[in-house]
Structure formats: structure tokens, C-alpha cells
Amino acid sequence: THPNTETHTQTHSLDSYYGLQLLFTAFKINIVFLCVSAGLEGDVDLQFLLNGGELTKVKSDSWQKKRFFKLQEDFETMWHDSEKIFRKNNTFSLDDIDSVRQGRGSESLQKYTDDSLEERCFSIIFKGKRKNLDLMASSPEEAKQWVVGLEKVLTHMSNLNSQQKSEHWIISCMRKADKNGDNMMTLKELKRFLQQINIEVDDTYAAMLFQKCDTSKSGTLEGDEIKNFYELLTNREEINVIYGKYAETKGQMSANNVLSFLKTEQKESVSLEDAVKLIEKYEPDESKNMTKDGFLRYLTHTEGSIINPAHRQVYQDMSQPINHYFISSSHNTYLMEDQLKGPSSTEAYIRALLKGCRCVELDIWDGPNGEPVIYHGHTLTSKVLFRDVIKAIKDYAFKSSEYPVILSLENHCCLEQQKLMAHHMISILGSALLVQPLGNEMPTALPSPEQLKGRILVKGKRLNKLDAAFNNNNTVEEDVVSEDDEAAEAKETDPKKSKIRLAKELSDLVIYCKSVHFSGFEHAKEKQSFYEMASFKESKAKQLADNSASAFVHHNMEKLSRIYPAGSRTDSSNYNPVPMWNAGCQIVALNFQTSCKKMNLNQGRFLPNGQCGYILKPQFMRTPGSQFDPNNLTAGPWLQRKILHVMVISAQQLPKLNKDKPKSIVDPYVRVEIYGVPADTASAQTPHINNNGFNPTWNMNFEFTVNVPELAIVRFLVQDYDTASANDFIGQYTLPLTSMQFGYRHIPLLTQNGDVISSAGLFVHVMAIDA
Fold first, then answer.
1. Is 514 annotated as a binding-site member?
2. Which end is more exposed in the chain, N or C (fewer Cβ atoms within 10 Å of the end residue's Cβ)?
3. Strand pairing report for 97-102 and 359-365
4. Which residue in the list 12, 324, 331, 554 is annotated as catalytic?
5. pTM above 0.85?
């Protein structure tokens, strides 16, 4: 038996948990995993994880070593052994896991394991840029049990509301502060605990807090004293004030009181029956009234979140032509890092697709052994086989969204490898690949996302018109065509003069997204067919959006436009997508591999509508008679002026930025930013609060005028103030104004990469009134 891996035969209880039912008996906090239900109590798969087992860790052909893995009793940490004697950290948090994938889906497992081992392999995918953990079990049954067990625990973790995550996190920090494991807390341990949860207090205040809770005068906190300390620490005065205002029935909120709160504060159109259902949902003891704990549970659950719950599903009309939607799009999708020497990987495609990206880019070049490869040409970026990328796209295209995926091809290959590209797409993608126009007649407009569900479209050069494909009249075998704009730019040549030979087999796969050069709006109106689309470098698109916005909007009512970053962005940085969306551009391609404010805006834009990757443009950007100009706002249906009131009340459990320095405490402030048409762009921020990342309170009001709310995006940013250097990022949350719920709302905080920061959040009051 490995050290620290004793076999546990007892059943581990996962009690249903609400409020302050903490099992604080003598501080024996066997961290009870905070499940909404007791669905995992006595679960055999959970027991399997707790007992642990041996797995083979796969890094390369020569590095495949056995390691013992097990779930710790805190239900939040995985432990594994290591050959490195002095290695301090042999654990990782389940909260760091993004997903678990069964099979040989990763590049390492495909490269370094045999096909016959498919059912024994699985990968743990981490959030952010951390490398995958590729593992192999001794049998298919054991691999399945690892995957099923981990997925069950991860699902339960994701089902916790922010209040439950907060409680779980605080208890976990208490355990870590109890260095000697005696289930008691000394003054020194209390101070260590406060530093862990991001609060800096002076010795006098810490001693006063300790003495107040140490009712037994024993010099340690234990049992009920720890529970009292916890209640004192987690008391939220702002919640007390709001609850007290409406708790008019023997100190609690009756159904009528709840109804009054929902209508007055939350501006919701609800009935008494809805209020009763809310009480039933958040009061587990069948109480007819809502307690303060139940009220807090409501505020930290889905109904109390900043985003409209109805917008978490697909709620928009998906039957409009595809050019009437903003489409989540990636540039140089194959790259994991920069564009000079970074790695190319199928994993980059998988991650983009799982984030709802619906247009991915493939830069294809001639490869060895006649096999085309994908990489950033004429650089030191690594290469990945085209066929492997197509396999990854087939496997992951429709896991997060059922709506169409567009493959944007930047083709640099010879005729023979072009033919092989076509063969790979046809043979691997099968019936998902669109090879003929829909319907029985030659179309006159692009089909809708609904019509194209589950289909993959190819964007690229075509030898002839679409009606030739429809009439099966593709007689041209091969020919010379002008190169795609972005491909030509990569060679620093004029797109009109840069030519390539195009194979018929590849040309025939381009149906609704034929690449053409843009020669002006008038030329496009007269000569460009509905299925032809142009690509614009960011500088050209910005120029058109600034100087010819109305014409650009009208162009995009009929045609698709793709925008891509300048070639000079070798660090994979991003441009601002907002002006492009304001001009109606659909495929605004960004470097998904780079976490930044621009990607936050992109994630926010595509957050609603079930994160399906398609957002219906406002009506005034789809109606031919519209005179909308984002830079020159005249009267029209787009002008729906609102005064947006935002009160930043408080924050909860902000993460420590420097975990290696226990005394490093953040000095947080909140910045509220509005993005949209130029007239609406604005920001405001709170002052910073010294040495408190646990429960800082601001109670600060801001007011913004928003002229075109249908294009407005709101970003909440939390940063750590620093007098000597740039302020550090703590967390953010971005969403469209039209998807916001009003009233008192909790806001989850996300990393720059878009992952949820467990337990951290903001509490705000939001209201919009007609100006």
C-alpha cells in the first residue's frame, strides 16, 4: 500500500447541506461535500475514487509510469504519488478540472498508445493553460469507473450555488489552518485562517475576535465556539438590511412579502403562486415562510443571478438567414500560444468548439508523405496533421451546440494534397459535411442555423458559381484562382495578383461560403452573390466601420463578412470586436488562445442564447430600409435611451493572487464598463479597499446613459490596486445589457480565460429606466 493511501472500507456520507448545518461537532469537519441532494451517499463510484487505484501516466513513448491516484476525504482534492522525494505538492483540486474525456482523444494518447487501448484511456482536462493529464487504466471497466466517478463529483460541484461554494471554501480553509489537526483553533491558527481567506487584521482586532468566541476561556476555539466564529465571520449586513425590510411576518418573509420584494425590487412580473414555489424551493423544512438563510440561498442561486435564466437556453428565433446572426469565430484556431514558435494542436480546436465557437480556421500547407499539415506558415510553430484536426472537429463540433460549424480554409497546398484534403473531409465528416445546396431549387438567400443544424460548411475558394453545383454541372477540373485575402497577406502580396491552382474536388465542397475579394460596397451590391463572402483585415474593417458604417451594416444584411487580426499580431493579441459588431459583421474572428479583455467581450456577447455560438442581430440591422449608423445616432427604432443605475454593494471571497505569500492580501476595487456604439462607451470605478478580499463593501452608485441597449455589453471587472505597479486582474463577468436581470443580483466572477472562480462573486443592485 502506498503512503497516505490506506483503503477505506466505510461508507462516506454526503449529507444534504443547507445554511449553517455544518457538522461542527468538536471541529470534526469530515468535509461534507456540499451537495444539493444526498444523491452520492454510499455511491459505489465515489467509494472507488476514495479507495483509489493505480493508473499509468502517459507523457511520451518512453515516459509511461504507474502512479497511485485517490480522492481525498475532503472530496475536493486528488492525491497521487511521485518519484520526486522532495516534491511538495502531490495534489490537484477538482475545482481546477474542466472536464474528463474517455478514450484516446488527446494528442499524446493518440501518438503514444495503441488503438487497441482506446477503452482503457482517459484524459483529465484542466482549466486555463495547464496541460492535460493523460492516463491509462488496467482495464476498460476500471477506466470507465474513474471517468464516471469523477464526472459525478464534478457535476455535484457545478450544481452548488455560490453560497454553498462559499461555505465549502471557508470550511476547507479552516481545515488547512488547523496545522496540527487537533480539531481546535488557536489564536495563531485563527490569524493564519484569516490570511488564507484574504483578510488582513491587526493583532488587537484578531485577539478581540478570538476572545469574543472563546466563551470557555480555554485559549482554543472548539465545537460551538467555532460555529459561532463562523457565523460572526460570514454575517452579511447588507443581506440583513434587505431581508429586514420585507420580513414583516413574525420576523420572516411570507409569500406576500416575497411577492412584494420580487415586484418592487427585482421588477419581475410574478404571481403569489410563483412566490410560494420560491419558498418551497429554498426552504427544505417545508416552511410556509422564507427565512433569512432561504432568502440568501435564493439570491445566490439561478433566480438571483445577474443573467436572465431564460437566456441560458436557446431562446432566439433561429430560422433567419445565417447572415442575420453574430457568429462566434476563432482565428488561427490551431495555435495554443503565439504565432511565431508556439505549438499547434488538435486540443486548441476541441477547446474552441467546446466554448461554442462556430467558425474555426485551418491554415493548410503541403506536408511530408503527401499528407497536408496545419501550422502558421514560414514560422517555427509546430505542425499537426490536417486529417487529425478533421477527426477532432468531427468528434467535438456539436457537443456544446447543435448549430452549424464553418471551416475557414486558408489553402496553400498543391493539387494532389488539395484532393487529399477533400477526401479526408468527405470520408471523416460523412453526412455532416454539406456538399449540396439545401432544397430542390436554386436558393436566393442563405439558409438558417435551424436548417443547418448538425452540418459542417466549408469556406474557401470555388471555381464556378453555386448553380453549377446545384445542377451537377461541375465540368471544370482545375483552374487558377486568386488567393484568399488572408493567405495573400501572409505572403505580403496583392490578393488580386496572388494566384493558386485549385482542385475541383476541394472547390466542390464550398457551397454557401465562397471566398471573394472585396472591391467596394457598390460593386458587392451589383456583382457579389448571396453565397459569396469577403474577409477583411482588422484595419480595413475598422476603416469601413468608422467611415462607412451605414453601408457596412447594409452590406451585412445580405452577405457574410469575416474579420481577422492583423498579421503583425505575432503575440496572438486581439483587436476590439465591438466596432465590427456595430457594423453588423458576423464572423469577427479572435485569437481564442489569448485571454484578454477582448475575449471577455466575445464571451459576453455569446453568453446568452444557450451559448450556442449564434446571436440574432437586432431587427434594425436586418431590415433593408434601416438607416442605422452607430457613429451618427438619429431617431429610429434603435434609439431606446435608458439610464442604467448600478450600485456596487459588496464582494465575497475574492481569490488570493499570491498564494505563496500568506500575508499578501488584495486591495480590491470594482470597475463597471459599458461597450456598444461610441456614444455609449463609458466606465466608472469604486475606490479600493485595503487588505480585504473576503467581504469588502462599497455601497457605491453609478449612472450610465445607454442609447442603443440592444448593442450594449456590460463588463464588471475586479482588480487589485497597486501603488507601485500595474493593477492586477482578480476576476470579471461580461454580458449583454439585454440579458441582465434587474434588482439585487449576485454576479459570479470568471478568470480571464472564462472559467468560474469558485465561491467568488459580486453583489449589486441594477436598474434601467427610460431616459
1. no
2. N
3. unpaired
4. 331
5. yes
